[in-house]
Amino acid sequence: MTSVGEHHLGLLAEQAYERLGDYESLFFEGRWLTSTEIHERSTRTAGGLRAHGVRPGDRVIVMTMNTPEVFIAYRAIWRAGAVVTPVIFLQSEPELRHILTDSGATAAIISPELATLFRAAAAGLDIATFVIGENYADLEAGEPAGIEPRADDDMAALLYTGGTTGRAKGVMLSHRGLWESGHGLQQAARTSDTTRSLLPLPLSHAYGLIVVISGLHSDRRLVSVLQRWFDPAGWLRLVAEHRLETSPLVPTMLQMLLAQPYGDHDLSSLRSFGSGGATLPPAIRAAAEKAFGVTVLQGYGCTESSAVISAETLTDHRPGSVGKPLPHAEVAIVDLSGTELPTGADGEICVRGPNVMLGYWNDPDLTARTVRDGWLHTGDVGHLDADGFLYVVDRIKDLIIRGGFNVYPRDVEDALLEHPAVQIAACVGRPDTEHGEEVVAVVQLVPGQRVDGAELIEFARNRLAKYKYPREVRVLDAVPLTSVGKINRRAVRDLLAPGDRDDS
């Protein structure tokens, strides 16, 4: 019989409660929840899941806004031996239908705002559905359940990724992989004495999930204030009201905060920001550190690496880097043939360790192409310096080849972001008969600022090599973003497709 592995995430949650005891740990929309309430509700929910037929290894969809029920559901699902299958709430019906059928989920926990969409997508499927505020109470009425045995290499989470570049694929992550990544991230955070954080990230994304798991490793009583979704004005009010010290963010969130009248709020309690999910432009990092009086610490990873590969710390950081690889992650930089490159040379970032995914769900061929000889090929370009700091240059698939020269979109975006009127910039390649690809971009301006595309082209031309600067810059009301705040490059490419030019 399988025993409870030492890296079982249900066990990790129980150990955290036993270690830290009862205290006010989570604030959400006017109400505090204690650690005891969260623990007891999760043990009952685990019993409820079992009573409704959920068995070890079953996939359970969690499709909610950021609410306390997410914290409870994750703990309960792991406790029941099932597999957390988070779904971002900004899904179309066909996208959601694909996830439901592909995962073979047997149960789902849903926010009431999403119930109509979910039921339409799940039509004809045998999925026990529990809607918060409706029949979800049936789960929490269950008898408290013990921890269902699972091995360390059993699947703990199935995360769907890649929806902006094609049909979403399921990434299988193990208990140990997520445990190790969470532990590594918590150890990096140990250099700070911050204990009061604001969580605006979608907890259904890999970044948000690993932040939750990281907190379970802490030996300090961490207090979290949860936003239902990111609202920059509300974020500022919550920091001032609760004297919060830190917040994990993605770069576009930082950009939106910088566009707010942040000087109207007392933000003196802030000490640091964590930045992940996408590469942080240097200009935005510098502006955030100056505006909020914080140290911005970057981390790096991908869903397939259990979210975290490297992270900066307050005692070990370097401008432009994403920190050093954490102890659980071995990093190599390789060329197209798979040969390891010397220090300082750009190549594909590969990682090996217990955090590497178990594979892609129902896709052994893609798994074999992505994980070779134990090494996960991330598809990202970067290098290591002589002191072991990792630098991420760009995504391989986003590379623009103009007239035989390589152009990394990030270089162009960083140049455009130096303009005081530009809040967000996105650069892509557009098919071109003369050069193969042409460099084009869109920008979103700081509220109240005005500048046209021609001026921005000239601005970039003075900062970039001749082959790099964008030949078209379009000013938009809003640059397309994904549901987790990353630039949606597919949508940008569609906007700037040949025959759809706008030289404004």
UniProtKB/TrEMBL annotation:
Keywords, ordered alphabetically: Ligase
Organism: Actinoplanes utahensis
Listed name of the protein: Acyl-CoA synthetase
Keyword Ligase: yes
Lineage top rank: taxon: Bacteria
An individual GO BP term: fatty acid metabolic process
SUPFAM superfamilies in alphabetical order: Acetyl-CoA synthetase-like
Domain AMP-binding enzyme C-terminal: 412-486
One of the record's GO molecular function terms: medium-chain fatty acid-CoA ligase activity
